[in-house]
Amino acid sequence: MSSGSFPARVFIQEVVTRDGLQIEPRFLPTADKIALIDALSDTGVAKIEVTSFVSPKAVPNLADAAEVARAITRRPGVTYVALVPNLRGAEAALDAKMDELNLVMSVSETHNLANMRMTPAQSLEGFRAIVAAATGSGARLNGSIATAFGCPFEGAQPAGKVLALAEAYLEAGMNSVTLADTTGMANPRQVAELVAAFRKRFGGVELTLHFHNTRGMGLANVLAALGEGAERFDASLGGIGGCPFAPGATGNISTEDLVHMLEEMGVPTGVDLARLLELARALPALLGHDIPGQVAKAGRSGDLHPAPTGLKAAS
Question: Per the domain annotation, does 259 fall within a domain?
Fold first, then answer.
């Protein structure tokens, strides 16, 4: 895999205020969420997943979804996304004028039942109603395939099953697809093979990869996907987040770590890394705990330090 095979530009899609906050025990005040989204809008990220219009009982930290969605400052060139679990959530997101709705179901039946309390077939039928509701609204529709690289209950999912669900999404009227490693089970070879198979079958359909760093392979999986032409990646500021319905799941890949890696490799993202690092370093005070991201702690590779005083060769 050579750097010559990498895309000319990579698009960074920030999910901290949805996927990042959904597992947090402390409620982040609405004003802080709005301020964080507005600050992220100025960093150069391509998309921001603002919130999820989900039951407050299921995800208490996102109970203020409508208020947040209506209060943020929309920056031209940034796509503002809401995750919607059902028709009611979709209608609320459309009412809040979200640019894109993200519809999520698991290719694994067991995980979908745990997460959505529906079979995949039932979820897909519900998605068709959402597509109908969104018709004419101007909102784009993205279909996310959770557990695309493995389910903690069922294990690996066949590539053919994942691709069949992607095809069902597109046939239902969705504009783009996300392959999500919900519980951090993916490995680089598996990622390369699935991305290559997706590209072969669906050509130029917009594809996003959503990786978690549960087992330390998140950025390695990004490299594998890049080598097969993937150019869109979800990431979470500070590396926070995780699926509340997945045993042992930890955070997403860190936005600032991802941008730093790409910058060091000479792959453009259009993202202001210095500003990202400022925002990441402010997260512990907002959340009340440390963050998994590494570059916010260690600094960039190019951040040099003064040599120790009194250096001299041993005599």
Answer: yes
**Which helix (H) or strand (E) covers residue 275, if one does?**
helix 273-287
- Start-to-end CA span in the chain (Å): 47
CATH number at residue 233: 3.20.20.70
Beta bridge partners of 103: 84, 143
The Cα 309–Cα 287 span in angstroms is 38
pTM of the predicted model as reported, rounded to 2 decimal places: 0.94
**Residue matched to tokens 């999820």:** 52
The C-alpha atoms of residue 38 and residue 44 are separated, in whole angstroms, by 11
* Chain-centroid distance, C-alpha 6: 20
Amino acid at 232: R
Does some domain include residue 305? Answer: no
In the predicted model, residues of the chain with pLDDT beneath 50 are: 1-4
What gap in Å lies between CA 94 and CA 71, rounded to an integer? 15
Provide the mean pLDDT of the chain: 94
Annotation marks residue 151 as catalytic = no
What is the domain range of residue 129?
Answer: 3-298
Strands 11-14 and 140-146: unpaired
Q: What is the DSSP letter of 288?
A: T
Rounded to the nearest 5°, which phi and psi values hold at 234? Answer: -80, 150
The count of structural domains within the chain is: 1
Task: State the Cα–Cα distance between residues 248 and 243, nearest whole angstrom.
Answer: 9
Query: Closest by alpha carbon to 41, among 30, 52, 33, 53?
Result: 33
Residue matched to tokens 């301020």: 35
Residue from 146, 225, 240, 243 carrying the catalytic annotation: 243
Pair 263, 257: CB distance under 8 Å: no
